[in-house]
């Protein structure tokens, strides 16, 4: 496919009083061809529908996972995604970007660092901006992911659960299911401090 057959739009959203970039948005508009039909017209034997690591449905039109790779693309096409919320600072790989272009999927990137130190909080303003995108049905179906679909994704989903009026014990239970044995005390305390400020 030719690069010039796409119209690419890049915009930066910034907090008014800050100079750092909060969200990087890439919208890829593919030609008016329904690639979902082409891909799904194959028999089920021809498709390898492999979900990404830690994939799950969060709510109607909202999914979560670890970082998808090319082995997951056929599965992701069945979701007919409108957008992806990526929670890591690293650049999106070229193969994934091409997949987004081919399927007309918008990418919203929030560069949340992976912290190893205890009691480091995820920035509240970043979580609020990401939540706005998750709650906007124009972005649905949406996939939220970080590298492993555990900590950063779990914190954002936990904040969504708070808005859905889940009790904190249920929020932490869900978080731990995805984080498994590697659930970090610092993540839970950091998530808890963000959860108490998210209304």
TrEMBL record:
Pfam families: Y_phosphatase2
GO-annotated molecular function: inositol-1,5-bisdiphosphate-2,3,4,6-tetrakisphosphate 5-diphosphatase activity; inositol-5-diphosphate-1,2,3,4,6-pentakisphosphate diphosphatase activity; phosphatase activity
Gene Ontology CC: one annotated term: cytoplasm
Catalytic activity as recorded in UniProt: 5-diphospho-1D-myo-inositol 1,2,3,4,6-pentakisphosphate + H2O = 1D-myo-inositol hexakisphosphate + phosphate + H(+); 1,5-bis(diphospho)-1D-myo-inositol 2,3,4,6-tetrakisphosphate + H2O = 1-diphospho-1D-myo-inositol 2,3,4,5,6-pentakisphosphate + phosphate + 2 H(+); 3,5-bis(diphospho)-1D-myo-inositol 1,2,4,6-tetrakisphosphate + H2O = 3-diphospho-1D-myo-inositol 1,2,4,5,6-pentakisphosphate + phosphate + 2 H(+); 6-diphospho-1D-myo-inositol pentakisphosphate + H2O = 1D-myo-inositol hexakisphosphate + phosphate + H(+)
Database matches in InterPro entries: PFA-DSPs (IPR020428), Prot-tyrosine_phosphatase-like (IPR029021), Siw14-like (IPR004861), Tyr_Pase_AS (IPR016130), TYR_PHOSPHATASE_DUAL_dom (IPR020422)
SUPFAM superfamilies (UniProt xref): (Phosphotyrosine protein) phosphatases II (SSF52799)
Enzyme Commission number(s) from the entry: 3.6.1.52
Coiled-coil regions listed: none
Keywords: Hydrolase
Highest taxon above the source species: Eukaryota
Residue stretches making up the Tyrosine-protein phosphatase domain: 54-199
Similarity section: Belongs to the protein-tyrosine phosphatase family. Atypical dual-specificity phosphatase Siw14-like subfamily.
Protein name (database record): diphosphoinositol-polyphosphate diphosphatase
């Amino acid at each position: 496919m030719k690069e010039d057959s796409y119209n690419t739009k890049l915009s930066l959203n910034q907090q008014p009083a800050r100079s750092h970039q909060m969200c990087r948005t890439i919208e890829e508009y593919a030609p008016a061809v329904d690639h979902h039909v082409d891909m799904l017209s194959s028999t089920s034997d021809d498709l390898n529908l492999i979900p990404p690591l830690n994939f799950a449905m969060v709510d109607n039109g909202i999914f979560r996972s670890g970082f998808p790779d090319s082995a997951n693309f056929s599965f992701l096409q069945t979701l007919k995604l409108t957008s992806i919320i990526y929670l890591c600072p690293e650049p999106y790989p070229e193969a994934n970007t091409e997949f987004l272009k081919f399927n007309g999927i918008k990418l919203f990137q929030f560069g949340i660092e992976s912290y190893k130190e205890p009691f480091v909080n995820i920035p509240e303003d970043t979580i609020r901006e990401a939540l706005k995108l998750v709650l906007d049905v124009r972005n649905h179906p949406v996939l939220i992911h970080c590298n492993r679909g555990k900590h950063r994704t779990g914190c954002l989903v936990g904040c969504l659960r708070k808005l859905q009026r889940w009790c904190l014990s249920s929020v932490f239970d869900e978080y731990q299911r995805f984080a498994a044995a590697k659930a970090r005390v610092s993540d839970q305390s950091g998530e808890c401090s963000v959860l108490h400020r998210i209304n």
